[in-house]
TrEMBL record:
Residues 342-384 form the SWIM-type domain. Residues 36-56, 427-485 are annotated as: Disordered. Keywords: Metal-binding, Zinc, Zinc-finger. Residues 41-53, 450-466 have a biased composition (Basic and acidic residues). It comes from the Eukaryota. This is CCHC-type domain-containing protein.
Amino acid sequence: MEVTTNLSLTWIVVGKKILRDICNGVVAFTNDGVGGPTQAEKSKGKSKEKDKQGGTSQEKAVLLVLGCYMRRGLQMQAVGTLKHMKTNTLGMKKGCKACLRDFLGLYGAHMKGPYPVQILTAVGLDSNNGIYPLAHAIVEIENYESWKWFFECLGDDLDLHTMSNFTFVSDRKKGLLQAVSQLFPCSEQRFCLRHIHENMKKQWRTKEYKDHLWDCATATIVLEFNHYMHQFSLYDKLAYEWLKSIPPQHWAKIHFTRRATTYMMLNNFCEVFNGKLVDRRDKPIISCLEFIREYMMKRICNVLKVQQKCVGPLTPTSTKIMEKNEAAAIKYIAEWCGDEKYQVKGPWNDQHAVDMQERVCSYKKWELTGIPCIHVIFVLYNKADHAECVHKIHTYVHKLHWLQSWKIAYGYKLEPIKGRALWPRSKCPMHITPPPHRNQLRRPKKKRRQSMEEKSQSKSESHSQRSDAGPSEIHDHGPHGSGKLTRKFVSVTCSKCGNKGHNSRTCKGQRGT
């Protein structure tokens, strides 16, 4: 790694040198001696060169009108300034409909450019339980009006109306629930269980509370859910009342409907997509949108390569679930009750009723996921043993889990876009500027805000490293890996009076005896 030393560099020279050195593998400057470039000059020069390479935010706002985004699904509401903008493609809309799953995850994140707007995303699930990004919008601020406008655009894309039975999962962002309730009152709203746990950890932090929460949320039988809720009330009455204040139809699996064909309780698949945008959120708006478009284009091609290697009637994820259920179904016993109804007993004194004609099991997993549970699979084994006519086992799986359905969803691809020099001229007004922004006080934070669980994990890891390391290792690396020792237990001595417990700034003038 080469390091250069230079004196008397202005920010213009520094910016050009940074760009040239990045290409040549030179990664750092030294500031030895008077007249060298300061950190501010380096930052200013780097930002100026980035503007030259990628364009400033003002130029990007005008290019949005000139570009072919206007011809490929860009929607914009602007009166002098750019306020709302949503992008998607015809291929992604058709592919989302072909997924046969009325389920969307909603998420909002901050952009970190000179005009820190926010990006709203809608992500679906494909037949292999992978993410399927549908649409994203850049708005001035995340509030009720922004979410309402975003849902109106989604309704036009997916042909949703007031009586649509769609399912949305979110982390209860600002104004999101009100917008969904107003535009789609018949839809099902699920709350991310991890965010509920994060809110719970503000008052109750131990692992026992997390276990009680997950036991209540994952129960698939009404009596089992009531039992776990009662156990939680005996453990902590206040925490139970807090959890009870959240309607269980939003977070408990037993109260979910079978519309979405999934019992997904988390919003982490949206965070997977937003995690791809971390390195591009500080870029100008066109660069960020181009990155998202190219990412989705590459992802579709990567999934197509995986599909070419798949063999079988079901998707890889569904195949693994079926193999696991088939292996566990051997331990069960089925009794025929007439017609197409069966009673299935398990090795742990569990007993469930299965109706093959209605395709219903009292365990509810078959209805929630569309994949036969252990009890249904053993009923099929029992019918085959008695020489009854039984269809192939994959025919009892919902159609969305078939490999052919997965291929149809990814058969809609994104069209390539020409370079900026070939973009056609638009008749829209040219005087469009970024939204007004007022700079906040203090230095802007670039580091992501950690959750309570991440903080506790980092503390436990640092504690284990500190206990395993020797004294010399602790001195070299520091208790938190920062290279410095903590001053938590250091006694401070005042330079004025000589007493301990305070410094010269807070000294009241007393002299030591």
